[in-house]
Design a protein that fits this description.
The complex is a heterodimer. Chain A is α/β, with parallel strands linked by helices. Chain A has helices spanning 7-11, 39-51, 62-82, 96-111, 130-139, 156-162, 185-194, 214-217, 242-247, 282-298, 300-319, 346-354, 368-374, 390-407; strands at residues 20-21, 24-25, 27-28, 90-93, 117-121, 142-146, 167-173, 198-202, 221-225, 236-240, 258-262, 265-268, 324-327, 336-341, 358-359, 361-363, 379-383. Chain A contains 14 helices and 17 strands. Classes of the chains: A alpha/beta, B alpha+beta.
């Protein structure tokens, strides 16, 4: 069948999947928190340090040139990966969190006025709430929140009603980390633009599963994290439309981001360097390219097809467990099965699963407003990556059955 | 009030009980069982003032001084944590503030479960112990002042 992946061969690229936990083969189902890394990414990090470690953009020696070239090659690979028009629009950050903070702080400081409105949704990760609260408090702006229904579904009609002449920016998660639901960002962007508002898309969870084309989306900003895309921690990609980035003041001051410094006044560097103060995380940026190549090599649609099968198989099998309820059990989601078991605290499930070698996430998933809306202290979340198998789903279900018996 | 054995003696008893089990399931089942047997805490104490932070689950704890000894009452919405609370209460409740403050609680490592308790959980455990000791210090200061 076209596009079918050899999952055993894929697994073979991830050394960590060979380890055991508490005497059992590791079943890693916490991929929405961070994915594991293929050997090519690990090799790229050691290859950089062993072969051409140097500070970038300023040295005239060979190592500095090689390091700069590798760093900038990742920028081009990232540009192609999300189809940005230019590498000037690709800013390296520490992660999604820093990308959102950069926009909230730099764009927000220059553009928000008292009474201006920022629209978020109930499903946002704390990283897409707190930076906006901080700038809103500073500027006297107001945050409006798009409601969800009991299944966690974004209420588009309500969103349209919240849009007003005062709306300056809509910042919305593309795929919910807690429930896996895909949001109608295209429609959100069209509606927001019609009112003259900008849109930031939090792509922390979507980038690894969906094809991202920032030009056809027409989003104004897009933020994601390499570590959720088989890449290293400490690297994020922030896309912004050139016209917006050009008008925005720098986020941090320091080396790399300046053209000329004097005590009479300083001029700033061009895009994207204006937003990259200080020595960046060179090794991990270099290795991010290997992660992007890994995904491009397998093909996102083939990866997605495999993950969709796992999600639907896991959902079917989990529905057989008495008292288990899937949260956000609606079509149109990726990679995540979030669930609760009647009368059992998620923490108890998490501990007993860990003792059986099964790693899932339990708790509020950094989405406390969502948990409050759903009336839950937290959920259990199994999240899948391309290297997971049906056998691992079976191991999860067996472990859950055992945990449920022990606790009831 | 009934005289409790000294803290190290109770710790040894618990370690011996856990030594009867050679697999994690039995240890956890024993812990869960202890959780189930923990006397319920009056709902009026389940408020922010009595809430211990630092755990994924919620823990509430109240203490009182009776005849120079501290009595703890606690509850949680999670079962394994309730089991841990139950063990801590068995060791510390009914002891003098001074003994509680000085207790090293080495039994937790000795029952061979720390490697099984995920980091967030151990933190919760640490937060509980810290609160129990803080309460003991507060009662001791109060008693010395009067
Ligand atoms: C939807 C969403 N937004 C933002 C973040 C923050 O990402 P990072 O911690 O990599 O900055 C996450 C990470 O869990 C997320 O899932």
């Amino acid at each position: 069948m076209e596009g079918r992946l050899d999952i055993e061969a894929v697994r073979g690229q991830f050394p960590i999947l060979g380890r055991s936990v508490k005497g059992r083969a590791l079943v890693y189902l916490d991929n929405a928190a961070t994915t594991q890394k293929p050997q090519s990414v690990i090799d790229a990090i050691t290859g950089y340090y062993a072969g051409y470690n140097a500070n970038i953009h300023r040295g005239i020696h060979t190592l500095a040139e090689e390091a700069t070239a590798a760093f900038e090659t990742t920028r081009e690979t990232a540009r192609a990966f999300i189809n940005a028009a230019s590498t000037d629009e690709i800013i390296f950050t520490r992660g999604t969190t820093e990308g959102i903070n950069l926009v909230a702080s730099s764009w927000g400081r220059a553009n928000l006025q008292p009474g201006d409105e920022i629209i978020l949704s109930t499903l946002e990760h704390h990283s897409n709430i707190v930076p906006w609260q901080m700038i809103a408090a500073e500027k006297g702006a107001v945050i409006k929140v798009v409601p969800i229904d009991d299944n966690g579904v974004f209420q588009f009609d309500a969103f349209e009603k919240l849009l007003s002449g005062r709306t300056r920016i809509v910042s919305i998660v593309h795929v919910s980390n807690a429930l896996g639901l895909i949001h109608p960002v295209e429609a959100v962007i069209r509606a927001a633009h019609a009112k003259g508002a900008l849109v930031l898309v939090d792509g922390a969870q979507s980038t690894v599963h969906l094809d991202i084309d920032v030009q056809s989306l027409d989003c104004d900003f897009f933020a994601c994290s390499a570590h959720k895309c088989y890449g290293p921690t400490g690297v994020g990609i922030l896309y912004g439309k050139r016209s917006l980035l050009e008008d925005m003041p720098p986020y941090q001051g320091g080396g790399e981001m300046i053209r000329e410094v004097s005590f009479r006044g300083t001029t700033y560097n061009d895009l994207p360097y204006k937003f990259e103060a200080g020595t960046p995380n060179i090794a991990d940026v270099v290795a991010t390219r290997a992660a992007l190549d890994f995904m491009t090599g397998l093909g996102k649609s083939a990866m997605r097809a495999h993950e969709d099968k796992l999600v639907s198989y896991a959902s079917d099998r989990m529905r057989e467990i008495p008292g288990l309820r899937i949260i956000g059990d609606v079509p149109g989601k990726v990679s995540v099965v979030s669930f609760v078991i009647e009368g059992i605290h998620p923490q108890d499930i998490g501990i007993l699963l860990d003792n059986q070698g099964v790693a899932i996430r339990t708790g509020h998933h950094c989405t406390q407003p969502l948990m409050e809306r759903l009336g839950l202290p937290g959920t259990n979340r199994a999240s899948f990556a391309v290297y997971n198998t049906r056998g691992e789903v079976d191991a999860l279900v067996t472990a859950l059955e055992k945990a449920r018996k022990m606790l009831s | 009030m009934e005289q409790r054995p000294p803290i190290p003696q109770i710790e040894d008893e618990i370690v011996e009980e856990f030594e009867l089990f050679d697999n994690w399931e039995d240890k956890y089942e024993y812990l869960i069982d202890m959780g189930k047997k923990l006397p319920p805490l009056d709902n009026m104490h389940k408020d922010d003032e009595h809430r211990i932070r630092g755990c994924q689950s919620t823990v509430w704890m109240v203490s009182e001084l009776r005849d120079g000894q501290i009595v703890y009452h606690a509850d949680s919405d999670a079962m394994i944590v309730k089991g841990l609370i139950s063990m801590l209460i068995r060791v510390l409740s009914g002891q003098t503030p001074q003994d509680i403050i000085q207790a090293d609680l080495g039994f937790i490592d000795r029952i061979g479960m720390t490697s099984h308790l995920a980091q967030t959980r151990s933190n919760g455990l640490r937060a509980m112990i810290k609160q129990m000791k803080l309460d003991a210090t507060a009662w001791q200061l109060k008693a010395n002042a009067s």
